[in-house]
Amino acid sequence: MTKLRKAFSMMVAIFTMLVLSIVATYIFYSSSSIAKEGEIQYKREQAILLARSYTEYAVMAIMGNSDRSSAAKCLTEIHAIIGKDANSVDVGLGYKVRVVITYIGNAKYIQNCSRVAAILPDPPAAPDSLSAIVDVYVSYRDWSNSKLYNGNATEKQNVPWQTYHRRSIQKI
Predict the structure, then answer these.
(1) Is residue 28 part of a domain?
(2) In the chain, where do the E strands start and end?
(3) How far apart are CA 151 and CA 129, in angstroms?
(4) Among residues 156, 163, 161, which one has the least CA distance to residue 136?
(5) CB atoms within 10 A of CB 43
(6) Which site among 16, 94, 126, 156 is 20 to 30 Å from 1 CA-CA?
């Protein structure tokens, strides 16, 4: 009988250890996936805030550049890198921002611009107005992706870019 009790106690101990190890593995897995989701949400929220900021920056740049007498002076694109340098952005430690500006308005204001969506008729049919369609693209990579850190340049190119796009029409 005592040998049977010792064997039963050993089986209960092994079963308990097995159940506890499965529970611990599940806890570690779920905590790492929660951290990963938090990181993804953080990067997306940063992209949204950057898109808002660059929309306002584009409007300020358009208003500061009131001389659109030649195509060279007509602001149509803004490019920026948020991070240490372009290399750090490529490995997921920053953001690339591209702003595309398309104009809508009277011909006298935008006649030389290369990106024009619509030209309104001459006054008095349409008031003196100028509007711009501002498209902001914020791109980033997942920095915790292991492919980015193995040093292989071809695999680094295979990690997809995540892009947040914001379009707004701004009256200038």
Answers:
(1) no
(2) 77-82, 95-106, 116-120, 130-140, 162-171
(3) 52
(4) 163
(5) 19
(6) 16
Distance CA(104)–CA(172), nearest Å, equals 10
pLDDT confidence of residue 146: 47
pTM: 0.73
133-59-43 Cα angle (round to 5) = 80
One-letter amino acid at 156 equals: K
**Where in the sequence is the domain holding 65, given as residue range(s)?**
36-171
- Is-contact 100 165, C-beta < 8 A? no
- Please name every residue paired with 9 in a beta bridge, in sequence order, or none if there are none: none
Count structural domains, the chain: 1
How far apart, in whole angstroms, are the C-alpha atoms of residue 77 and residue 103?
12
